[in-house]
Design goal:
The chain is an alpha/beta fold and about 700 residues long. About 45% of the residues lie in helices and about 15% in strands. The strands form four sheets. The chain has a seven-stranded parallel beta sheet with strand order 3-4-2-5-6-1-9. α15 (about 400-415) packs across α16 (about 435-445). The chain is elongated. Mean pLDDT is about 80; it is low at about 225-230 and about 285-290.
Length: about 700
Amino acid sequence: MQLNYWQLDGVSRILEENATFLAHDVGLGKTYTMIASIMECRRLGLANKPMLVVLNGTEKQIEESFRYLYPMANLLVPDKLDAEGRKIFTAAIQTGDFDCTIITHSQFFSLALSEDYQLAFHNQEKEILQAFLRNESNDRITTKQLKKALKSLENKINKVTASTRKDNHIDFDNLTDMLVIDEVHEFKNLSIITKMYNIRGIPKNWSQRASDTYMKILHILGDMLTETCSQFTGKVIGATGTILSNTMAELFNWMRMFQLPKLRELGIETFDEWASQFAEPTSSAEVTASGKYKVVTRFKSFCNIQALRGLMDQFVDLRTNDNIGDVLKRPKPKFIDVVVDPSPAQLQFLRDALKRSEKIYTRQVAPSIDNMLKVTTDLTKAALTMRLLGETKEADISKLHECVWNSWQIWKLTNTVKGTQLIFCDASIPKTDKYSTYLYLKMLFIALGIPESQIAFVHDFNKSKRTKLFELIDSGAVRILLGSTKKLGTGCNVHRRGLWAIHHLDAPWRPSDLTQREGRGIRQGNGEFMGFTLPFVWIFRYITERLDALRWQTLQWKQEMTAKFLNGEDLDNVEDCDQGIYSYAQIKSMATGNSLLIEESNLRSELNSLLIQQRSHQRQQFSLGWNIDNWNRKIQDLERKIDWLQEDLKIIKPVFKEIKAAQISRRISLECKDIFQEQNTSTRKVADYRGFDVYAYSVNQKVFTKKRFL
């Protein structure tokens, strides 16, 4: 077995650095890179207790790959980690000498850090929030949001303090000095502490698993601020084929995990500091539900791209299919767009959706009853099949029927080699109590003569049965597999028998999901059981005209922007690609079939944004003009004072001796006392001091003194 040059480079980088992010495209052999890195670190004494964390249901595949590279490796792979199993498992790691421990994401989450470490981490986050609160006393909305976040954090601290473990397993703190996490993008949703609650485009979703992983990474790297929690420095490796899933702001979370000391050194440890360097908040006029324009600030683009790439390159080992050349033998994708006309029921639904959007647009309906998110969900269902919205019969010409026909033709064509096909559909997962697209497709396949045993749903195989599913596919017993992006798109290596076709029944919102789907077939080793690599793989994209086209177009634009950034193109800025809900203009365009309506809406929005910026510029110019006049007046006043002071300097006498100064002070005090008693408001000379006359006068029962020139 000979590793490719980028795999060897990845191993070398892991040996030299403590934190490495393997951002290798799907199919470039991340698994072998991780395994070789673990064994090399063991051989060189750089790690004693490596731990490999893999996607649920793939642990057996990873173990097979490990033993293929290193047949004599001493591996620890637990079957389950319940309360009793955790005690035995953690004790085995502590006392044994294993080359690697392989656990799943769920098992990894069940291993808890010590209470002291968790409290130290949360208290560190609490200090940041309290610092933000001290500096934001004038912004009521931001202060309210910060207090809400602080209360949530305090609840976490109380929960850690009050909780008691059901088992007494060894703390995670002492289990590993080399943590390798496969498909690390599953833990990207970290909570972000920010004062910019009024800016849209900031990731707001967070998960407890991501926070738990973040704490464990900081512990192993020794990046916590407290000395007691930084007793050693180990190695952390993250691996994924999709470093960016939805927005460029996700890069900040990766930098927090793998590059926290560098962020502290540069003074951009918090999201607000980071965003001030790399994100451009843009204010523009957007249409509200009332039909009026409102100025909304959001992160629409990212700047200083070359500097951001430079920072990212310090911990990310980035390899894409575009920059490795034609080294790998992989099938070439053959994209086939199957476009079907909308049925009368779908056209009627589009007209109804437009009416719903108009009511939402003009605020004729409460958001709790109907909103654009509900309309978007219904449009997604309608694009797939109207039966999901109550129709009792499938249209004669639909993308479901087209998918079944194409799949059946390829099934017959690859019958001699028992070729495999994947059908992706994120809507209408199989359920026995109501209509399901999966069950309808299966019924049609059986009617065309495909044996029921050769058709499978990935949802029927949980993580304990997933290995059995892979064996059925490798043997050719299952040839058509249906599933969603989440269950079938990541970690399912079903290509060895020969994956001939991938069918997209619907379009995901995120480019990363599309990459994971197509990566099941566009990879090395596709067809290795036949002794050669397939020359191509068919990728069918099923599009319902006027319902799907806009979504595929948006997805393509997102994918192109992400690819430009990752391939290192010379860009000054990159537009963000976070979008998941149709706008009123987009729905109107789909309903009328006029694509120019979207362009018109965008131009109107841009025009209003420019008009707002123009008015802001005019106000700023007026303010600057007033400031210039004000400062000119101050300059004139100061020049007059300078002339007076120069005259004073000519007549001023030396400083009096201490005794004489005390006498003058007593005399002034007595004179002022007489003026106060007399309540005399006229000015009276009370003393001479260094060539100046000292006068006193009474105002509102207070005595003031002032000097006058001789």
